[in-house]
Amino acid sequence: MVNDSIVRVLGIETSCDETAAAVVVEEGSLTTRVWKIDSSVVASQVDIHREWGGVVPELASRQHVRDICGVVEKALDDASATWAALDAVAVTQGPGLVGSLLVGVAFAKTLSFSLEIPLLPVHHLAGHIESLFLENGNLPLPAVVLVVSGGHTNLYVVRELGDYAQIGRTRDDAAGEAFDKVSKLLDLSYPGGPIIDQLACEGDNQAIDFPIARMTHVDRNAAQAVESYSVIMRQHPGRFDFSFSGLKTAVKRYVQARKGSLGSLKLSPQEIADICASFQRAVIKPLLGHTCDAARTFGARSIGIAGGVSANSQLRLEAHALGNQVGLPVFFPSLALSTDNAAMIAAGGLRQFHHGVSAPLRLNAEASLPL
Ligand code: KG4
Ligand code: ZN
Fold first, then answer.
1. 156 lines ligand 1 (CB under 6 A)
2. Of the residues 149, 287, 341, which should be mutated to test ligand 1's pocket, given the most ligand atoms within 8 Å of the CB?
3. Residue 50: in which H helix or E strand, if any?
4. Residues 158-217: pLDDT tens digits?
């Protein structure tokens, strides 16, 4: 039974290599709604996949099966909540690895059926966007939001709560994927973002002039632009799109050439730090450039940046400086909510709940779910 002033949602996230569960509580009336994280548990599989240099889908789904019961029970324990206290269960329906998604979806459907509570389907990227609202309250709207992770690099205009209009995307690799691949070719660890972030602090970001891609042609596979934006999108083809595969190849060629010239010697720690810093600069520049350009073009009143790469320390620093320069507030999730977690899925579920969206028990996982 849903109390008028309290809605308690269990969120479940298993789209990739993190098994996560969280309890988020909404308190207050329609005008004074506040979201509060009562618990957030993440069981990371990083140690399993590190050995392979990336996520192995089969290993990921098997590990989700092992972890899901304990992770959900811990989320309830940490929140001092009973099963009966749950008002709804939210789950990532997609996009992601289908075998991984299925574990969370099957678990959530079982809970929904046995507890007789609504099943709230959540798009993983909507979850990342809602992580901004979960911790910062309502952003001034319209907001331009960059979702930058291991699987996606997308730009959205959020015109109203829960309304996400995509205006840009990567044409090839996601920014996080580029971090992971560059880390691998420098023989650093997996995932690559945190270690490159750390090493870049010791390097010279002007040491190597890596290329920054500019898209000038229409994206033939683009989703249909929202009616009111289609004119702008047609006038400026590719203006808000990204590309990181050329940069990754440039780093690869540079490293190969340097290793060739060194013979049996290894790259020095300073040279590795310089490569990390220069690569990172070439990623951050288009991310922030396009986000600010979009904010201007679409009359945004705030900027949000979410997803795993939003944990990057230099990106945070430069985004806030740029925000001050253009006079717009810039919002990030906390570091814990930047990478995959279930609190953001519970928040996405609450948004669905208030839009009257719930799923039937035949809900299926969708690897390429559109937003
Ligand atoms: O959002 P996320 O946890 O999973 C996906 O939805 O993909 O993002 C993971 C990505 C990885 O590619 C990882 O290398 C990157 O986020 N990442 C970072 C940092 N921390 C994680 N990238 C740059 N700097 C960081 N500090
Ligand atoms: Zn994610």
1. no
2. 149
3. helix 46-50
4. 999 999 999 999 999 999 999 999 999 999 999 999 999 999 999 999 999 999 987 766
In 135-237, the DSSP E strands lie at 143-148, 153-158, 164-169
Q: Please report, as a single letter, which amino acid is at residue 63.
A: Q
Task: Label residue 88 exposed, middle or buried (CB < 10 Å: 0-12, 13-18, 19+).
Answer: buried
* Any atom of ligand 1 within 6 Å of the Cβ of 340: yes
Q: Residue 124: nearest ligand to its CA?
A: 2
Mark the residues whose beta carbon lies below 5 A from ion ligand 2.
149, 340
| pTM of the predicted protein model | 0.94
Q: How does pLDDT run across 260-315, given as a tens digit for each residue?
A: 888 877 899 999 999 999 999 999 999 999 999 999 999 999 999 999 999 999 99
Q: 3-state class of 250 per DSSP?
A: helix
Residues 6+ apart with CB under 8 A from 183: 189, 190, 191, 192, 193, 195, 196
Name residues whose C-beta falls within 8 Å of residue 114's C-beta, 6 or more positions apart in sequence: none
Nearest CA to ligand 1 atom 18: 193
Residue 95 Cβ < 6 Å to ligand 1: no
Residue located nearest, by CA, to atom 7 of ligand 1: 150
For 6-128+339-354, give the CATH class: alpha beta
Distance from the alpha carbon of residue 193 to the mean position of ligand 1, in angstroms: 6
Would you say 16 and 55 are in contact if contact means Cβ atoms under 8 Å apart?
Answer: yes
Query: Contact, 149 vs 155, CB < 8 A?
Result: no
- Where in the sequence of the chain do the CATH 3.30.420.40 domains occur? 6-128+339-354, 140-328
Q: How far is the CA of 355 from the centre of ligand 1 (A)?
A: 30
Q: How far is the CA of 179 from the centre of ligand 1 (A)?
A: 8
Q: Is the CB of 176 under 6 A from ligand 1?
A: yes
Of all protein residues, the one whose alpha carbon is nearest to atom 3 of ligand 1 is: 339
Q: How far apart are CA 105 and CA 97, in angstroms?
A: 12
Query: What CATH fold (topology level) applies to the domain 140-328?
Result: Nucleotidyltransferase; domain 5 (3.30.420)
Cα–Cα distances in Å, from 55 out to 62, 105, 191, 352? 12, 20, 10, 30
